[in-house]
Amino acid sequence: MKITFKLFATLQDYLPPEGKKNNALTLDLAEGTTVEHLVTRFSLPQKLVHLVLIDGNFVPPAERAGRVLRDGETLAIWPPVAGG
User: CA-to-CA distance for 84 and 81, rounded, in angstroms?
Assistant: First the structure.
């Protein structure tokens, strides 16, 4: 199955070079791959995995380990936002 994987702000640094241009990668994944699998695969620090959306729908932290990705979905992750 194929999904689109997007990382924003400082998390873009965790993408390989081919993904940095558009802050996105198309990934070919095994059936049963979860959000947590991709967080681990790309070595994303848990403290920076703040806002997680699949096709624009929020995935709460408690559901990320068990949320299986489906063909055609877009997984987007943002770090915490700071500002004033």
Answer: 10
Amino acid at 8: F
What is the length of the chain? 84
Q: Are 7 and 23 in contact (CB under 8 A)?
A: yes
Give one word for 69, left, alpha or beta, with left for phi > 0 and alpha for psi -120 to 50: beta
Instruction: Determine the Cα–Cα distance for residues 55 and 40; give it in Å rounded to an integer.
Output: 20
Look up residue 11 and give its amino acid.
L
Dist. CA 65–CA 33, nearest whole Å: 10
Q: What is the dihedral of CA 80, 6, 39, 52, to 10 degrees?
A: 50
Mean pLDDT per 10-residue segment, the chain (84 residues): 96 91 93 97 96 98 97 97 66
